[in-house]
Fold these 2 entries.
Entry 1:
Amino acid sequence: MTVNPLYHHTHERLEEEQVWIQQAKSNPELFGPLYKKYHEPIFRYIHQRMDDTEMAFDVTSQVFMKALKNIHKYENRGVPFGSWLYRIAKSELYQSFRDKQSLRTVNVESVTLFEMMDEMDEDQSEINKKILFRALGKMKEEPLQLIEMRFFERRSFKEIGEILDITENNAKVKCFRALEKLKKYFHEK
Amino acid sequence: MTNRKMNLDRPNLNSEQISARQNFDKVLSKHLLSKPPVWKNPWFWGPTGLASIGIALFFSVNYLNSQNETHDKTNTLAITDLPKDTECIHPPIEGEDVPFQTFEVNPNKNEEIILPSGTKIEIPKESLLPENKNESVEIEVREFPNKVSAFLAGIPMDYKKEDAFISAGMIEIRGKQNDQVVEINTEKPIEIDMMLTKNPAGFDFWSLNETTRDWTKYPVKYEMNHQKEESKLSLNNPVAIKKQIANIDDQMVALNQSKSEVQKPSTESFKIPNESHQKFDLDFNKKTYPELAKFENLVFEILPTSGYDKNFTKKTWSDVKLEKNKEVYEMIFTSNSEKMRLPVRPVLQGKELTEARKEFDAAINNFNETVAEIEKNKSVLQKQKEAYQKALMGDLAALNEKIVSNSDDKGTASFKLNQWGVYNCDKPSRYPAAMKNETFFVWESSSNSADFNQIFVFNLDKDLRFNYGDRAFHPISNFGFHANDELIIFGVERGGDFGICELKSGKSKNISSKIIFKKEENGESIKDVLNMLMNETVSV
């Protein structure tokens, strides 16, 4: 499985990012490079879970406004800035669901379903694709989030752990269990 | 099923489209606008102005506070030492208790505590009756959002002797001043809106009797999130209600669209034959028809639409071949004097046909389930719409009816408190029957028998914990479990050693009389291990 490339920074990139953060703390106008760097991944994270594209752009803006407002609270204690933004994005996203401004949506690609069938040792057939799609629809929110992050967005366990505020090992176990749940639904024909 | 939409292969936006929508200036300007203007900054007015404003503020705020003040204590919460064990509430594992969050409140003011979960505790002025009214009172609170937290805290979750509780939310609250319990004024009870972790449909509300270790029913009012919204609507105006109806209509249109897009599987697409139609075995060039090459047992069935003479087989044909004309296969029969084209379709035989029938059945089931679910969702929406329409016609009470219980709508439990203790939204469920034969508990590492004095069976499918041994209603000899369910069995020896046995759904059927326990020795805390095993959503 390939992984989310943006998450894997070089040491130099990380240092550069820390400089941007420090600058943005003293002057919000210097938040620009961080906005430019993370706008697309945060939008994609939100849009993946939402049906309305315009609303996804709005929520993305809200995420960055909230980040600007709270950047003075951000301290580099092992959680990368990107994961901090994802936490804000998750919070804003679910707020929009609660406010009924948008509908929770699961966007699945056929190619991902075939990859998952491979991971689940199932035949890569059209009929299995439909069954798997249906099984995903039956999943509860928490395991579904893990499946989305691991398989649809190809995130590492470490990153999933940072976004969900759990340990890498816990993320691994939870992803495994989510996949087991999915298999269970898959076989409930 | 949650209220969510599933999309397959939605076109993705490319990076250019996304970056075209970047607008940092707009984000920045909104951010700057949200900050208070400079003239509102006290420093703008200089030391004299600041001092004047400060003095004025001091007196006015002090005056207002003495009348009526509400504090959001979210930012002042602190984790205290672990609670003291009691005979009733006794954590099974030393050092793994759930700590209280402590809040200092003024007994002479209206106070409000909001917990991180969203649970709200309102303490009216003079509700607390401490010995010294001029000193603050410490309110200690802990919530138990999942099985692990209730287990680690040692909260007894048995109801009478026959049942264990499935919890939808539980809270423990105490009040004290200088280590002395503070009484609550029964005429001014504390009001709690407890956030629930499950839909409370079918659940009752209980308070723990800490003398008998049993639970008694307690008055509560459940409020669902959708009801909250609806009651807000009732206070607003018809425009808001009409908007809801329009929203429902939109959802209905989307559901109807989804329904029309769900295609019923046809026997044709699965190459299942119609027994009453004539079929021919025919050699064809597999390179010309690669889509048919993968099938071993293929014959061609004549389509009934052709209106052909069924006696054509009695004629002598010099050649028969297959052709494809605009996605329709045709068999071309040729003789010296005649040429006949018959539309046909390829169908399967033998094992391939058996497999195709299975796939077809599964596809039909899938189709029926999808349609049924769409219909169910439509029915839910229809009921909601009817309720809104009634409300529009003046029957606002309809909005307060339980329109439809959405399984993911968890809501809150609102109750009044005039006694400290543990309060729980629960549903009792029967203990499993004891094992027929004596059960032996064995350590995997040494094969020695484990001398457990407490055994806890977590049933993950039923979301329950069953307790056996010390401090439980059931002795270990009553040990039993639901054989078809996913289980985590946790045993504690008197010396403090503990072991875990994990049984997947259906696996426990094979257990006869010996259950093998693993010791957890990888250095992780038992809380983390249990949270991982049980896939709990909320850490404690």
Entry 2:
Amino acid sequence: MKKTTAILLLIAFAAGLICPAAVFAQQSSVKVYVNGMKLDIYPRMEEGTAYLPAQTLAQSLGITISWDAATRIVKINNNVVSTTPLMADGKLYLPVESIASGSGASVEWDGSSGAIRISKSGSSSSVAIQPVETPSAPVAKSTPTVKSTPTVKASPTYNHVAASGTGKPAVKTPDAPVDPTLIKAPDVSVTYQPSPTLDKPSTGKNPPSGLSHKPPASYSGQPSKSAYPDAQKNDSPIRPKDAPPAMPSNLSLPSLYTTGDISSPGPAGLASSSPFVPRSESNGVFRVSVTNVEVVDSIKDYYKPKPGYKFVIVYLSQQNISEEVQIYTGRFSMLDQDNRSYDYIEGLSNYWLVILRPSGINFGYLVFEVPSDAKPMSAVLHGLNQSPLTVGLR
Amino acid sequence: MKNKFFPSIATIALALFMLAGFMPAFAQDKIELKFWHAMGSHRGKVLDELIKKFNDTHPGIHVTGVQIESRDKTMGNDYHALYKEILENIAKKTPPDIAQVYENWASQWIDIGAIAPIQDYIGKPGGIPQSEIDDIVPVFREANTYEGKVWTLPFNKSIYVLYYNKDAFKSAGLEPPKTWDEFSKAAAKLTKRNGDNITRYGIAFMPSVDLFGHYLYANGGDFVQGNKAVFNSNIGIKNLEFWVNMVHKDRSALASFKDRDEFLSQKSAMFIDTTSRMPNFIEKAKFNWGVALLPKGTTRRYQFAGTNLAIFSHLSGEKRKAAAEFVRFLCSKEATTTWALKTGYLPVRTSVINGAEYQAQIKKDSRYQVGIDALKYAVVQPKVAAWEMIRGIIDDAMFEAISLRKTPQKALDRAVELANHLIRNISGMLP
């Protein structure tokens, strides 16, 4: 019996893949808010139960949801939850109650605006890597336990709203969705202290043919057990096997990609220039955040600009702030003080174009090779059917 | 005489005129298909021959090969260019009809409905017989299967092996290393020192995700499990420590972005690359060199590389069927034999591996047997949509550790953090 159900579920999942074009179909027009932020998802109604796409919800609530197809066990934050998931459109859906009970969130059915409101204390209103996350984002009342029986069972009101919903709440409620574009980048600087000297190589020049450093003096004479100079100082506890890495809860994008990881110090004088203040701009489709700009004279200790040129590294993120899936996310270029435009060097950059779902974020760095006298003025994103998006770099 | 001659010319002219009038009608009947690929130079020529053969034997279909090249000749990567071109044109609703795709690209494009499944034509009248699918090397068939369905078919496949300088091994009295422990010992023994100066390293390697995978997979590690990056496991850290120690402690390895040149100029005695490098070495290497299986760890698992063939979902009816027919042809016994013999890629069919022609090739040069042996232990890199980005992140982490900017643990912990953010943001599919 168990086996049969598992097989049926597998078939259901496979069947979901057969019609992938339907992935973005709106199942009902009931709106879903997490901590006041409207999500671009719509519940799927099955036998009076509202099912929500697990992944989107997990992201928004900052929880982990795992599903083992073989055992059919659903875990929320590593706790087994007794529930029956639904596979549709190749996605895992969970009843909203089970998400609530498994994650300690509260769920409210707002009949007047046709919305499900999920609140969870301690979670940010969107994913942790939100580049312009702000602690002042409206967080709904923190309720550690499930607040009454979530009234998401289908009711006449529900059906009525579902049939006539317009997609926009008519009345502004205290936890109305916040336009993420209104959150200004300087908020980020509170949590982000650029430290240009961090993680810079401490060893000398490398042989021209490769990355093989001359061994640091500390262990050249008597090879110690470990070859890494700071291994002894690294007091991070040894994690139990296969334990997930600790995820700082206040993780913001600037701390993800730090400077100096792949580059060598830039020409003298530039390192002492004032730290770059992260900033972001949006055009209604994307928000581009530049977290740092670096001028360097080599990449990976090997790649050097041609004579009379220098490398400029732009660390950035790009978020889809539209309500649609963005397949092609555009091409970046850089402008200098004379309006000269530069393409980035693909082979040295680490920015791979990806399909971005609503609120999805891509990030990485772009490497430009520019004449020594060029001053990086702005990064420009050229999308398909949007006006170019310009972010200042000075 | 003249009077008779002129009418005949007029008749011919009239006939030609009429024919010309009919021509567009004929041309319209022919199904035109565009095949985007990244195969240049010699491989491109072999592919063009195959396309011509298909067109000659399929009068109703005309396939045009379109080679997508990176605009940046020195730093560019043609596969990256191909990916970007396809992605942009999917968005513009002008995708190719057929294209080379990696497994993780297909994951993304299946998810948005841009690719059509080959499965629809398998076992159907006028379609691809199931026996042809069963004949595909199991690991390749598996790599092209998503949720139980064959979406794409394998094309230019190769697998990672160890290249070694036979002369250097002989003078050191060594056999190719069978375990990773033997590997590092061999590297140390092969390293030639002249005072503080090293004239030959045991191995030269580029710090990259693929290199990271060899030791990892051989010791039971994984990059991604389900929808989670896990390559900072104990094995992952041990793996990176292994390479860092060889570079900085033993000083038997040279981390280099031109590792292939180091091997060719005998600056290193070993080199790790896929089997598709063989024709190039046969032409370029001026010393005796051999091919061996990569060392084993607690187990044997070897990464394979190369793309598959996909047909795109904007095609319908007869056009889609014609595209499937072309993909079937490139994966056929005949085409895969020609392709393998002329380019050095692995045959993707069991019948071709065991066939007279490929066996003759092995008899002529036994080094071709190694790739076939390795296939038994082949493993596919993650198929999650974010994989292509994660690759770059692991490249960077590997570099950070090898250049002593970070400890392996620190470099990998952060890389895993970044990778999991990408998986959550991009792939959109739970396992």
